[in-house]
Amino acid sequence: MDTIVSLATAPLKAPLAIIRISGDKTYEIVQKIFTKQILDAQDKIIYGHILDLNKEIIDEVTLSCFKAPRSFTGEDVIEINCHGSLIIVNKIISLIISLGARLAQRGEFSARAFYNQKIDLIQAEAINSLINSKTDEQRNLAILSLNGKTSKKLIPIKNNLADILANIEVSIDYPEYDDIEELTINDILTKTQENLSIIDVLLNESNHALLIVEGIKVVIVGRPNVGKSSLLNALLKEEKAIVTDIPGTTRDVVEGEINIDGLILHIIDTAGIRESLDIIEQMGINKAQEIIKEADLIIYVKDKEEDSYIELEEIIKNKKVIEVINKKDLLTELKNNKIYISAKNKDIKDLIKKIKEMFDLEKDIEPSLCSSREIGLLIEAKQSLIKAQEEARKNVPLDLITVHIKSSYDAIRRILGEEVTPDLEKEVFSRFCVGK
């Protein structure tokens, strides 16, 4: 396999930079440009100088040396810790390429770790999640997966399905042997239900984790001039949206992002929905209606309890909605079953409390699947088991039931990366940075 090289730190001027090399010729190439003997170095840090082909010093460096298979990629790996000038970095990388290495592609180091069975696909995806984490909660989820704790939750499911398949296959292929335990329909129903129960728990945990990883799209809606823009400003703690007493001030979407106990809210303030003869305002209203369709949460703002807008309520009726009554500072009576805020005075604590309750932010973080790919495959595994149960209840022949159980088994293996295709490789590793 080719020897690859890349800058593993950000391509910026910095005190230090790390250049990573991996592959069969790693030690051979680096030895040609380094001032000390390294061919037998294993798990060592060595101080010295990088020289160009004319034996001129390029930089004073340290090498971190790892022999296969005791490295991240499972191959020979050397990391060159040099000064962070991009001139120095580019000279060293160009020199290494001239001696037989090539520039690494996106995620290629992690891909090699995966193919050399140093990590599974869940762990590989966790590396990218860890790099891109913005909150402690996102980081904690990524660490749990990187440490293999999420993968361990899938192993019992995979093993149970393998046992069912093995017993069915033996029963079909060798019916003449009396000492082979023959699975009955009730056995299949019981065993598949055990797996479904495990999958349901993991799906519930994973859907919660996905909210933490991806955040939720929150759209603020209501009539014109009820205080939507003031609420956006209060949530963001900055004056991002223009606020006036003139209805129809907001004509386009205004966006911002906040972090509530580890849950990222992508907040969008929309134009007040009403009939308007103003062409520009109506364009904003049309855009607001489109954005509502994609929302995970609607904050429906009113300025009085009895306010009702049938047309808007029809648009949001199938959405997750928090209804808030603004301008509580002007109200004389507050009811216990309502959520009151004063966006102008930044009094939105009851709304924040409701969001926390709705998305269960007090829940402990568990090892969970954290990508749409992983969760989609787990749902596929569940659906296949449900089909197997339906066929079993109809007393369909065992070999036909096996098809669905095998589909479930294969979906679990694809989550772990035990069945990988070029398309899957491209989907997962192309999102990585080059040095990882």
What would your notes on this structure say?
There is one protein chain. It contains 14 helices and twelve strands. With 436 residues, the chain is α/β, with parallel strands linked by helices. It folds into three domains: 112 residues, Probable tRNA modification gtpase trme, domain 1 (Gyrase A, domain 2, 2-Layer Sandwich); 127 residues, tRNA modification GTPase MnmE domain 2 (Four Helix Bundle (Hemerythrin (Met), subunit A)); 141 residues, P-loop containing nucleotide triphosphate hydrolases (Rossmann fold, 3-Layer(aba) Sandwich). The strands form two sheets. A six-stranded mixed β-sheet has the order 3-4-5-2-1-6. Strands 8-9-7-10-11-12 form a six-stranded mixed β-sheet, with helices on both faces. β8 and β9 form a beta hairpin.
Mean of all residue-level pLDDT scores: 85
Q: Report the sheet-strand fraction.
A: 15-25%
For the report, how would you describe the main beta sheet? 6 strands, mixed
Count every helix, treating DSSP H or I runs of 4 or more residues as helices. 14
- CATH class annotation of the largest domain: Alpha Beta
Give the secondary structure arrangement, pairings included.
Blueprint: E1 4-7, E2 14-22, H1 26-31, E3 44-51, E4 57-66, E5 77-84, H2 86-98, E6 102-103, H3 108-115, H4 121-132, H5 136-146, H6 149-173, H7 185-214, E7 216-222, H8 228-236, E8 254-260, E9 263-269, H9 279-293, E10 297-302, H10 310-315, E11 321-325, E12 339-340, H11 349-358, H12 372-393, H13 398-416, H14 422-429
Parallel strand pairs: 1-6, 7-9, 7-10, 10-11, 11-12
Antiparallel strand pairs: 1-2, 2-5, 3-4, 4-5, 8-9
Helix pairs in contact: 4-5, 6-7, 6-13, 7-12, 12-13
